[in-house]
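Q: Give me the 3D complex with magnesium ion.
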Amino acid sequence: MKAKKTTPQGNKEITDLILDSIADGVFTIDQGMRITTFNKAAEQITGYARREVVGQFCHDIFKADICFKMCPLKHTARTFESIVNMEVNILNRQNQEVPISISTSILKNRKGEVVGAVETFRDLSLIHELRKEISRQYTFQDIVSKSKAVAKLLNILPDVAQSDATVLIRGESGTGKELFATAIHNTSLRKKGPFVAVNCGALPETLLESELFGYKKGAFTDAKRDKPGRFKMAAGGTLFLDEIGDLSKGTQVKLLRVLEQREYEPLGSTSTEKADVRIVAASHQDLSSLVKKGEFREDLFYRLNVMKLEIPPLRDRKEDLPLLVDHFVRKFTEKTGKRIRAVSKRAMKRLLDYDYPGNVRELENVLEHAFVLCKGPEIKTSHLPENLTPSNHRTAPQATGKTSRLPELEKQVIVEALERYGWDRSQAARELGMHRSTLWRKMQRHGIEVP
Ligand SMILES: Nc1ncnc2c1ncn2[C@@H]1O[C@H](COP(=O)(O)OP(=O)(O)OP(=O)(O)O)[C@@H](O)[C@H]1O
Ligand SMILES: [Mg+2]
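A: Here is the predicted complex, encoded as structure tokens.
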């Protein structure tokens, strides 16, 4: 039997059948950007029926985020270059956003003349949902994390915040103690009241006491008028006592009395004032070991330690690094207006390999530094500070014995930073990602003297 000759009409039917059996969406356009074919999968992904779209402009159907910025089909029609797996968002018939991956190529007829272009596209909704699930992160206020240890803290934080109980936050320098303290305040019943912070390590005893409790006119020679203390300024709100481990024994007694009796006397005053504050205290030191050494009062420790939050150092939760990098890149993009979108693979590896003795604050400073130097859309290794060498490079030669060389290394790093900045403590502290008072303390501990 002679095979039946296919007519042009029959040809089209076969082509449609083939197109409809493909799982990807496929459509073609003519040179005027109007849709000429539209397969079944395209109908399913977009929600439009073939008869509604044939003859329409493709941008009216797809309403993609890039239609008017950089139309991939126009690009292909103009340059003959194909586009492969570009991710874009379109709006479906119900006006819901659908992420798709598109590929384009030019369409020529048998004579080799361009007659239009073809686009295939794949629905990425499921992949996006899975991706989201995998990268699920915990956020509470401005705290970003995906580590289990921090998630546990964030879980209890709302209850802690609502309770009005005294909170003790422990964490190394730059781990986010103050950030947690403000998050507690902002979600507490006192959120409309003030949040007042005092660094207990930054002032000598007498100054700190007048700062905390205030004084009355004439309490001492320079007291020309009444001065309210931080307890008064924080009334109705939260008083954040930072570096509480640095309190002198004398001030510890006075603070204990305020916590027990909920009242205090300003210097030179004969009457007492009510202390209507919620106390959140923080320390980089472990207070219970200070108690054992006799440097911190046990009774005050128990008063403070009602709710304890322990923030782990960044090196113990490296899974947070990509997230924090992203967070700070976005923050500095907003702040500087620079269009930096990404961190190169090598730069990211460098960031992941480093140990961050200055914790999150150091990471933040590293990225701020990179933003200053970076002129293009991507942060590269050349934009990172030179001292960001992997910690194992520095410690590599010593695999012997159990004694840690960490203190020695810390001393070395601090001296180097100080030398680099001509012993300017503020600048060195900034580079090291620690507070000035922390640097000062570490200098004292290591016996580093300013030449
Ligand atoms: N989990 C986090 N998510 C987002 N930002 C964070 C996080 N942890 C810390 N930061 C940021 O890092 C910086 C340092 O945090 P913070 O000042 O709260 O640390 P700290 O423990 O009080 O440090 P120090 O002991 O040096 O006073 C801040 O800019 C803070 O916003
Ligand atoms: Mg702090």
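A quick observation: Residues 160 and 184 are 7 Å apart (CA to CA).
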